[in-house]
Specification:
With 201 residues, the protein is an alpha+beta fold. The protein has one domain: NADH Oxidase. It contains 7 helices and 4 strands; from the N terminus they run H-H-E-H-H-E-H-E-H-E-H. The protein has a 4-stranded antiparallel beta sheet, sandwiched between helices. The longest helix has 18 residues. The chain is globular, with a radius of gyration of 18 Å. One of its GO terms (molecular function) is oxidoreductase activity.
């Protein structure tokens, strides 16, 4: 079995950062063993304690374990590309956020808060040798209907989760090449501005 380890994909950072941030990456294959319920609970507990504007905690999550009807429905809501590999994951999550505050105003910061909760979850997962692959490629309108999401909440992304160490041979050849490729990020000069925004595009 050919696998890709966290060590192999460790980021070559420009400055020293925390080890879990360097080792985190988004595989498309996972170890087949299921994630126990107590481990799933720990992931959501990490998300629970993320910072949020006015402590509104607008994030919501729907999850399903491989082998369940809900899991198959989640796969069916994904883009054709994501369906090719997401079926390798022992666990799937759909994320959503509450669109308005309790006062009825648009919650401008809800997506920011959802992102913070997923950042927490990602670092908790990393400490447990669990990989998370976040996806934008889902039919959110279909997901809203299939999973009975109430009005006022917006399905946003999907996440495939599983322990690191999946068999690369379960992927099509083109995806295997991506899986073993080097990780890259934009340099600070393209997104960090001191004092004022400077056009460096």
């Amino acid at each position: 079995m050919e696998t890709v380890s966290q060590k192999q994909k460790k980021a070559e950072t420009a400055f020293e950062i925390l080890a879990p941030l360097k080792s985190r990456w988004s595989p498309r294959v996972f170890d087949e063993k299921p994630i126990p319920q107590n481990e799933i609970n720990r992931l959501f507990e990490a998300a629970r304690w993320a910072a949020s504007s006015y402590n509104r905690q607008p994030w919501r999550f729907i999850y399903a374990k491989k082998g369940s009807k809900a899991y198959d429905k989640m796969i069916d809501c994904m883009s054709e590309f994501n369906q090719k590999w997401a079926k390798n994951a022992p666990l799937l999550i759909f994320t959503a956020y509450k669109e308005k505050t309790d006062e009825g105003d648009d919650n401008f910061h809800a997506l920011h808060d959802l992102g913070l909760s997923l950042g927490n979850m990602s670092m908790q997962a990393e400490s447990m040798n669990i990989a998370m692959h976040h996806m934008a490629g889902i039919d959110w309108k279909k997901a809203q209907n299939v999973f009975d999401v109430p009005e006022g909440f917006h399905v946003t992304t999907a996440i495939a989760l599983g322990y690191y160490g999946g068999d690369l041979n379960k992927l099509p050849e083109d995806l295997r090449e991506q899986e073993t490729g080097e990780r890259e990020r934009k340099p600070h000069s393209e997104f960090v501005f001191e004092g004022s925004w400077k056009d460096r595009s």
